[in-house]
Structure formats: structure tokens, C-alpha cells
Amino acid sequence: MKIGDIFLGDRPLFLAPMEDITDPSFRMVCKKNGADFMYTEFVSSDGLIRDGQKSVRKLDIYDYERPIGIQLYGHLIDSMVEAALIAEEAKPELIDINFGCPIKKISNRGAGAGMLRNIPLMIEMTEAIVKSVKLPVTVKTRLGWDDASKNIVEISERLQDVGIKALTIHGRTRAQLYKGNADWTLIGEVKNNARIKIPIIGNGDIDGPISAKKAFDKYGVDGIMIGRSTVGRPWIFRDIRHYLNTGKLLQEPSVNEKADIALFHLDKSLQHKEGKRAIFEMRRHLSNYFKGLPHFKEIRLKLLTAVEADDVRNIIQEIREKWGDFRTEDKSSDYNV
To answer: Helices (DSSP H) in 162-295: which residue ranges?
Structure first.
């Protein structure tokens, strides 16, 4: 698969951009576990052009992460173009436009998935960005605004016509948010549309090797993007790649292996963030790293209430000493993809 001149190999695995999750520390952990392409956290165009500290900080990328994309969202063409030019200076491999975020404070302003209610503006904005930057431009979006407007087939053709180099489709409407099951049939319809020549990346409910392989085999997508299932479970990329290559499922990592990953992740997070913030933003990962252990509720409470890095390290060490080579059962479901 290629995006512009970026060669990503066969059946690449993408880490989805997620606010307060896909920071440099987590990206490093996912890269070590086999992610083929990653994105920064999504960046507000308004925040970027106003030199907002949080938005500007999200442009920090490192050589070990490459190839990497910077994803932008906004509702004004001029602001998005200006933000794309700023993002280009950070030297990512591509610029991605977020037309898929369903969060109210974003979509109600007409940004993210809110753009699905104004397709002409979506196309005009995309074309303006494509013409303004030298990097490949890609788009991530959803099937439509709601069940009455699942117009992704038309949208994909129009986006391709104005020059995007790849399209990621989340298999839900904006109205669904993250509820119900992702509908991959329309993703497959876009991929198998004779007019579509650009790579199509499928997203939604990929929670393990079996659902990933079905997405490739049944719907023919060029790549898959994984979001929520990576949180506290970065080895999902390793597991999927092994299954795609061999047809065999890997064992769930042992507690010792998970402890090593968690401690590495914590150390990298502390390198990039002020101590307390690093701990707070690690909590969603830490509570998942050891999910499935006996008496997990007690362990989870400890991990979610620790406020000092040494306390977190000690808790992880206690878990290691108690459970060591124990492997939890992987109970991830198939979602019938």
C-alpha cells in the first residue's frame, strides 16, 4: 500500500489519532509493538494559528515515529489552510483532515463529523488544503451524519476528485457516536467502487487478530486503523501482524511482559510531561494493562488513585511479584466484522 510516495507494505496497521492518548510516549510503545503508521493527537486549527501551547506541543514528532501524520480539525477554510501550512513545517509525512470526530463541542461547531452536514464545504476545504501544501493530504470521516444520510460512497468520490491520497472510514454515523457495531458493508462498498483508486483504510471495532483479518479478507480494505482497543493494550499490533503472517494466534503477554511495557510507557510519559499530568494521563492505560487479573477491581483502584511515579512503579512491581508468568485470558469479542 502507498499513500503518495509513502510505501507502507502489505496490509498496514494504523494507530488512530486520539486526544490525550496518542502522545509521544504511547506512540513509541505502539511503534515498538508493530504499528506501521501513526498520527499525533488531533490538533485544533484555531489553537494552532493562535499559537496555543497545547496545540503547538502536539506538533512535536520524533524520527523513531516515522512515518507519521498530523491530523487537523476545524470549521473555517482559511484557518484550516493556515494550520496545515504550520503543521507542514513540523515535517510529518502527511496532513490528515478530521471529518469524523463526533464529540459535541467539535461537531456542533461544524468541525469534525459536523462537516458531514455540509458536504460542499467539506469538499471546498479539502481542495484548498490540497492546493496549499506540498505533502500528501488524507481524510478521516464517517459513513454519514445519521442513518438517513449515509452518503460515504459519494463523499469518497468527491474527496478523491479534489486530490486526497487516502481515505479512512469509521464504520459508524456521527449520530451513533461509538454505540452499536460498526457497519463495514459501506466501507467495503467504497473500496470496491470502480471509481476509487486511492487506498481505503477501515476503522471501527477492530479489537484483535480475527476481526482484523476479516476486515482485510471480507471487505478488501488496504489498511486498518485501530483506536480504542489499543488503550492499555499496545501489543494488539504485534498480535494482529503475527496472525496475518502465520494464521496463528499469539498468547496474551504474561504479567511480567505487561509490567515491562507499562513501566517503559510510564518512563517515556514522564520524559514528555510534567509529573502529575503524566500520571493522570497514564491512568486509562494502566487500568487496562492488567485487566483480567483476579481481584482486578482492587488493583485498578490502586492504579487510578496513585499520584506519585514511585507509587505507580511500586504497585506495578507488586503486581509482577504476585502474578509473574500468569497470563489473563483474552476475552476480546469478534464484533462479527
So the answer is: 185-191, 209-219, 236-246, 255-272, 275-289
- What pLDDT, on the 0 to 100 scale, is given for residue 291? 86
30 is catalytic: no
Q: Which of 21, 94, 101, 266 is catalytic?
A: 101
Q: Which three cell numbers stand for residue 36?
A: 506501521
Q: How confident is the model at residue 331 (pLDDT cuts 50, 70, 90)?
A: very low
Integer Rg of the chain from CA: 20
Q: Compute the distance between CA of residue 311 and CA of residue 145 in angstroms, rounded to an integer.
A: 45
Q: How far is Cα 175 from Cα 172, in angstroms, rounded to an integer?
A: 8
Per residue in 265-322, pLDDT (tens digit) is 999 999 888 768 888 888 889 888 988 888 788 888 988 999 899 999 999 999 999 8
The answer to whether domain 8-246 has CATH 3.40.980.10 is no
| Whole-structure pTM value | 0.92
pLDDT tens for 61-88 read 999 899 999 999 999 999 999 999 999 9
Please, is 246 exposed, middle or buried when counting C-beta atoms within 10 Å of its C-beta (0-12, 13-18, 19+)? exposed
Q: How far apart are CA 157 and CA 176, in angstroms?
A: 23
- The sign one gets for the Cα dihedral 167, 170, 176, 181 is positive
What lies within 8 Å, CB to CB, of 305 at 6+ separation is: none
C-alpha cell recorded at residue 242: 503475527
